[in-house]
Known about the structure:
Blueprint: H1 10-20, E1 23-27, E2 30-35, E3 38-43
Antiparallel strand pairs: 1-2, 2-3
Organism: Cecembia lonarensis (strain CCUG 58316 / KCTC 22772 / LW9)
Domain DUF306: 1-43
Pfam families: META (PF03724)
Amino acid sequence: MTKKACEGSGENDFLGALSQVSNFKVAKNKLTLLDGAKELLNFVPKN
Length: 47
């Protein structure tokens, strides 16, 4: 979370998605956060 106010609802959307995570998977350099079978967030390394 940030201490500085940012435009838009991005931070709240991200935190809302995190609160729904019930499982995760890691495959081929990608982290996927899941709610059951539904993909909520994907993360890949920055090059």
